[in-house]
Amino acid sequence: MPTFRRVSxxxxxxxxxxxxxxxASTPDPDTVYYTKTSMPHVCDVSIxxxxxxxxxxxxxxxxxxxxxxxxxxxxxxxxxxxxxxIVSFGHIIAPLPDGHHMTIQVIREKNAGVAxxxxxxxxxxxxxxxxxxxQICHPDHEELLAGSWPFEYxxxxxxxxxxxxxxxxxxxxxxxxxxxxxxxxxxxGEMVSDFMAEGLFVxxxxxxxxxxxxxxxxxxxxxxxxxxxxxxx
Length: 233
Hints:
- This protein has one domain (8-221).
- The chain is 28% helix and 33% strand.
- It has helices at residues 13-17, 22-25, 56-67, 73-84, 112-120, 141-146, 168-185, and strands at 8-11, 31-39, 44-48, 89-95, 101-110, 129-137, 156-165, 191-197, 200-206, 212-221.
- Helix 3 (56-67) packs antiparallel against helix 4 (73-84).
- The radius of gyration is 19 Å and the shape is globular.
């Protein structure tokens, strides 16, 4: 098993070619920003955001690194942000005390409507949005859950942002439309089902043994502090 001791960061090519260039560090007004945190050793992938103002994303990455005990990542994170800005930041691979690692990536979604809504929210006020997420389950997640799995989440390989919307009804409707596409493309033996959880749509693609392969879900976020340590209003 590899032991991770060094911090690694990735920035955009534009920032590396033009350090200090304002064009490389100015946020696109029509883009919203999330973080995606992956810890492969515990099969955990999580999405946090969208963030506004953009500087709060740095606070979230800092808090996540500190919470997980990756103190060597903190000076590298802040040196990188001071050098290229958060807009050009790609990801940081942070070593953990047990020899494993955590990757925190900045995810960008071109979404003019949501970006305008976030800009227009008064300071220290709720910023409710609904994000459709696609979760790829770990192929052995049922065996892991049946054992001594100590966590509440389903063991996961990856999570992707599908789309962010501003109303629950429109997000549920769009997620249902996407699941209909899954249903039309499913392979022989696969099963597609859906249900509502606290008013939010959840869809599932399962194999012939009813084991979950992918989950499509609507996630609500209002900018408050959540389990990932996001600094909210």
